[in-house]
């Protein structure tokens, strides 16, 4: 009788598709964990949206009567797309703070000690922040409707405008992840200081055409200005005059800027996560 030897083929290392499935599964699990945490602490989301809601009411009613919209129109309709954009941009402060605290308290090290994709934890953070941002944007739009803001071009363009706002937020999440993994929690709490003037030096509250020449150029090329100007056009709200090249091509820039920011900072964020102990 002849003995037959059955040899087991060596297991092949997972290919790119397998690694991608692994990263998606990790991101899904960590997204659920983050959302469960927010479900038990809804004040975190409400606290993040309280400040822009107060700003919208204050600027819309306290300062609105003194504001002139280029080309005419209701200032509150001019204001609200700017407030939507500012809310999305300022969300980076939350991302920076959460990532810095997670890294300092050992949560990030715990993830790295597990058989987990390097993309999974940062992607999970990004997905959770996108859910939070969608909630914040919905609340801001409801507030806008209460103070007189209206959509004039129908639901299709309005959904496209909301998509542009969330695309900007998605790109800035990667900036926040990268910064949060480099800063201490104490330094992360000051992240709002540079962000606030950057969101003001845009077409958020006034048209860049009303600013002095040096500031006008910065405001016109600010990525936030591109998104806000494109949203005003899609919502049918009064907007900035299209005399400059950035204003005339706001929709193209509202797509190009977030894609460029994501292409730069997403790889940097993943690389920084991998090298935390170096």
TrEMBL record:
<keyword id="KW-1133">Transmembrane helix</keyword>
<keyword id="KW-0472">Membrane</keyword>
<comment type="similarity">
    <text>Belongs to the ABC-2 integral membrane protein family.</text>
</comment>
<dbReference type="InterPro" id="IPR013525">
    <property type="entry name" value="ABC2_TM"/>
</dbReference>
<keyword id="KW-1003">Cell membrane</keyword>
<dbReference type="GO" id="GO:0043190">
    <property type="term" value="C:ATP-binding cassette (ABC) transporter complex"/>
</dbReference>
<dbReference type="InterPro" id="IPR051784">
    <property type="entry name" value="Nod_factor_ABC_transporter"/>
</dbReference>
<feature type="domain" description="ABC transmembrane type-2">
    <location>
        <begin position="43"/>
        <end position="276"/>
    </location>
</feature>
<dbReference type="InterPro" id="IPR047817">
    <property type="entry name" value="ABC2_TM_bact-type"/>
</dbReference>
<feature type="transmembrane region" description="Helical">
    <location>
        <begin position="159"/>
        <end position="179"/>
    </location>
</feature>
<keyword id="KW-0812">Transmembrane</keyword>
<feature type="transmembrane region" description="Helical">
    <location>
        <begin position="247"/>
        <end position="270"/>
    </location>
</feature>
<feature type="transmembrane region" description="Helical">
    <location>
        <begin position="78"/>
        <end position="101"/>
    </location>
</feature>
<feature type="transmembrane region" description="Helical">
    <location>
        <begin position="122"/>
        <end position="147"/>
    </location>
</feature>
<keyword id="KW-0046">Antibiotic resistance</keyword>
<dbReference type="GO" id="GO:0046677">
    <property type="term" value="P:response to antibiotic"/>
</dbReference>
<feature type="transmembrane region" description="Helical">
    <location>
        <begin position="191"/>
        <end position="211"/>
    </location>
</feature>
<dbReference type="GO" id="GO:0140359">
    <property type="term" value="F:ABC-type transporter activity"/>
</dbReference>
<dbReference type="Pfam" id="PF01061">
    <property type="entry name" value="ABC2_membrane"/>
</dbReference>
<feature type="transmembrane region" description="Helical">
    <location>
        <begin position="44"/>
        <end position="66"/>
    </location>
</feature>
<dbReference type="InterPro" id="IPR000412">
    <property type="entry name" value="ABC_2_transport"/>
</dbReference>
<protein>
    <recommendedName>
        <fullName>Transport permease protein</fullName>
    </recommendedName>
</protein>
<keyword id="KW-0813">Transport</keyword>
């Amino acid at each position: 009788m002849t003995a037959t030897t059955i040899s087991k083929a060596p297991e092949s290392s997972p290919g790119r598709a397998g690694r991608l499935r692994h990263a998606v599964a990790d991101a899904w699990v960590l997204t659920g964990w983050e959302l469960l945490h927010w479900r038990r602490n809804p004040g975190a989301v409400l606290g993040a949206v309280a400040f822009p809601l107060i700003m919208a009411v204050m600027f819309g009613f306290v300062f609105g009567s003194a504001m002139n919209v280029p080309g005419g129109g209701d200032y509150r309709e001019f204001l609200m797309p700017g407030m939507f954009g500012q809310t999305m941009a300022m969300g980076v402060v939350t991302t920076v703070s959460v990532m810095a605290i997670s890294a300092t308290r050992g949560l990030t090290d715990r993830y790295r000690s597990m058989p987990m994709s390097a993309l999974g934890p940062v992607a999970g953070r990004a997905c959770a922040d996108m859910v939070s941002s969608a909630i914040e944007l919905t609340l801001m739009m409801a507030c806008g409707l209460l103070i007189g803001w209206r959509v004039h071009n129908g639901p299709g363009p309005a959904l496209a405008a909301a998509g542009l706002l969330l695309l900007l937020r998605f790109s800035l999440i990667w900036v926040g992840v990268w910064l949060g993994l480099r800063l201490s929690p104490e330094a992360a709490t000051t992240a709002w200081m540079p962000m606030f003037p950057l969101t003001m030096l845009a077409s958020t509250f006034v048209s860049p055409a009303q600013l002095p020449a040096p500031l006008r150029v910065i405001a016109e090329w600010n990525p936030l200005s591109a998104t806000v100007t494109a949203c005003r056009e899609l919502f049918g709200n009064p907007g900035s005059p299209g005399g400059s090249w950035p204003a005339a091509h706001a929709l193209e820039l509202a797509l190009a800027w977030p894609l460029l920011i994501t292409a730069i900072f997403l790889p940097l964020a993943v690389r920084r996560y991998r090298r935390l102990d170096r």
